Structure formats: structure tokens, C-alpha cells
UniProtKB/TrEMBL annotation:
Coiled-coil residue spans: none
PROSITE patterns: HTH_LYSR (PS50931)
ATP-binding in keyword set: no
UniProt keyword terms in alphabetical order: DNA-binding, Transcription, Transcription regulation
Boundaries of every HTH lysR-type domain copy: 1-60
GO cellular component, one term: cytosol
Native species: Rhizobium pisi
PANTHER family: HTH-TYPE TRANSCRIPTIONAL REGULATOR YBHD (PTHR30419), NITROGEN ASSIMILATION TRANSCRIPTIONAL ACTIVATOR-RELATED (PTHR30419:SF8)
Family of the protein in this entry: Belongs to the LysR transcriptional regulatory family.
Record's protein name: DNA-binding transcriptional LysR family regulator
Length: 330
């Protein structure tokens, strides 16, 4: 004997509402269709499902037990509909985001936290990678979006890239470093201190190389390499080392009094940070909502970093053109 699950759902609805008419209204069916279902069930089972003549309708012991099974199916159906509504509204689901390590740790992870305070039903999975890795992960469907810096020559036609922040690097050191307040910087000032090497594959590797070319240097003394963002910050705070970091990353640590910016106007990269996605992604309303949040957060960050930049007295040392440019504070 095979029992149709939909018949059990209708039985449960009649028991719950106490009548065929009420159950039909609840299920969006006709009264005759529900009555027909009860008749089919009783004939197939060979036993009555309701006590005759009772109003509201009272199930027999067998009807009660079968109704419990229908109730489970009905609850699952309602839950499934709620899941569908929640997904389509972007209030539930999963977002998989990848990005370059330092930006993800310093800038994006706080944005994820602020997003989930308002959207607790959305799971966010964060991973790390540089541009080639992120492109491969987008291609394979491992991530939904990437936050990455890139230049225009790198962009692929099948990927969508939305710029959200101009790349801006700064020369960084520990708070209280002797170079922070020195106005007449020389090449020797840069050479005489050890450096932290950028992570392998990071665009900062090329940026450091370009800075050395501008200074006319073949190399600097690299004393520390391979650390996470937190370890780099702690290393800077505990030594006299120097490092090249994105301004937005340094800005994220402004209240901790661990690292400072040496106000040297260094060569800047020709690239921007942006959100990269496939041009034809699968439907993910939660992902679209998350991208909107990231867009708004970066707009605020951009204004804050630009305002901070204007308060710094940027210096071009004699090795960079025999002139000095001072940006007045706001």
C-alpha cells in the first residue's frame, strides 16, 4: 500500500482546522478536492479516519497518528517556502568572498562583521588569494566575488570589475620611529633601516621595486618576510623596520598607536582596488546585497582616507626632485 504524501498533508490540515472547508482554505484548495482525498484515504486504508457526526471533526486514533505524519510534512513544506522567500529577499544564503590577504584582514573583515549585524541569516565564507588565484576561483565557482587590486591590462572580458578604491601606498614604520618627523629625508635614511618583504605574489612586491628604482637603489636590507598582517604590524611596532603598505590598511590601525606613516611622497601604482565577479553569476540575492554593503562601506572609507591624506605633510626628499610639497591640513 502506498500513501501519497499530499493526502497526509490534507488530513493534517483537516485535523488542525477542524473542518474540510477550513482546511481547503488553508491549503488553497477546493472543499470538494479535500473531501475526495479523505474518501480515497479511508478506502485505501479500510478504516475510518474521523469519528462520525462530530463537529469540529475529531480524528480516530488511526487518523490522529496519520495526521501527525502529515503534520511533519506540512511543517517541512512551510519551512521550505520560508527558505525560498528568505533566499529571494536576500535575507538568507551564503556569500563566498576571496581577496588579497592584507586588505581582507584590515579592511574587508570589519565590513563583513557590520554586514552580518544587520543580516544574521547570511553565512559569509572568507578566503585569501592574489589576482591570478582569485580569477581561477571565480572561474571554478569556488567564490562568488573577489576584492582585489588590478590594473586595466589585467581585466578579462568575461569578468566584471567595479572600482571602489584608488590604490595608494605609504611608507610605514612603528609609532615613534625617528623618520616620522624628519623633514629632510635622504636616500641614506631609507637604506640604513631594515625592511619587511611584501608577501610573495603581492602587487606590493612590484611597488617596492619601483620605489627602489626611483631612489636609484638596487636593493634594501630585508630582515622579515612571510608574516600575516597582524604579525607585520607587531613587528613594525617592536623594531625600527620599514614597510610599504596600502594607506587604507594603515588607516585601519589608526587608533592602536602601533604604526605610523613616514610622510615621504613615494611613487604610486597605476591600479585600483575593486570588486570582481563573473558577468553571468548564478542567482544569489544575498551576494547582491553584500556587494551593495561593500560598495557603501568603501565609499565611506575612501572619504576617510582622503581626508586623512590631506592632514599629512607629504615630503619629496632631495633624491626625488629637489623639491618639497606640503599639503595643508584640513
Amino acid at each position: 500500500m502506498k500513501i501519497v504524501e499530499a493526502h497526509l498533508v490534507q488530513l493534517a490540515a483537516v485535523i488542525e482546522t477542524g473542518g474540510v472547508t477550513e482546511a481547503a482554505a488553508m491549503l488553497g484548495m477546493t472543499q470538494s478536492a479535500v473531501s475526495r482525498t479523505l474518501s480515497i484515504l479511508e478506502k485505501r486504508i479500510g478504516e475510518p479516519l474521523f469519528v462520525s457526526g462530530r463537529r469540529p471533526m475529531q480524528p480516530t486514533p488511526l487518523g490522529e497518528q496519520l495526521g501527525q505524519q502529515g503534520k511533519v510534512i506540512l511543517a517541512s513544506s512551510r519551512k521550505a517556502m520560508e527558505i525560498i522567500r528568505s533566499f529571494k529577499s536576500g535575507s538568507s544564503g551564503r556569500v563566498r568572498i576571496g581577496g588579497v590577504p592584507f586588505f581582507m584582514d584590515a579592511v574587508v573583515s570589519p565590513m563583513i562583521a557590520s554586514f552580518q549585524r544587520g543580516e544574521p541569516g547570511i553565512m559569509v565564507h572568507q578566503s585569501y588569494g592574489n589576482y591570478p588565484d582569485l580569477v581561477a576561483e571565480l572561474d571554478s565557482g569556488q567564490i562568488d566575488l573577489a576584492v582585489t587590486p588590478t590594473g586595466s591590462v589585467d581585466l578579462r572580458a568575461d569578468l566584471h570589475f567595479e572600482p571602489i578604491l584608488t590604490a595608494r601606498n605609504v611608507l610605514t614604520c612603528g609609532a615613534g620611529h625617528p623618520l616620522v618627523r624628519k623633514r629632510n629625508l635622504t636616500t641614506e635614511d631609507i637604506v640604513n633601516y631594515p625592511w619587511i618583504a611584501p608577501l610573495p605574489g603581492s602587487p606590493l612586491v612590484l611597488d617596492l621595486h619601483n620605489i627602489l628604482l626611483t631612489l636609484g637603489l638596487a636593493e634594501v636590507s630585508l630582515r622579515y618576510a612571510g608574516g600575516s598582517l597582524l604579525s607585520v604590524v607587531n613587528y613594525l611596532a617592536g623594531t625600527d623596520a620599514l614597510a610599504i603598505l596600502p594607506h587604507s590598511v594603515v588607516h585601519a590601525f589608526r587608533g592602536e598607536n602601533k604604526i605610523s606613516i613616514i610622510p615621504l611622497d613615494i611613487p604610486q601604482p597605476e591600479r585600483v582596488l575593486g570588486v570582481m565577479t563573473r558577468k553571468k553569476p548564478y542567482s544569489n540575492p544575498a551576494g547582491r546585497k553584500f556587494v551593495g554593503h561593500i560598495r557603501r562601506e568603501f565609499a565611506e572609507l575612501r572619504r576617510a582616507v582622503e581626508k586623512h591624506e590631506k592632514t599629512i605633510q607629504w615630503v619629496q626628499g632631495p633624491f626625488m626632485g629637489e623639491r618639497e610639497r606640503i599639503l595643508s591640513a584640513d
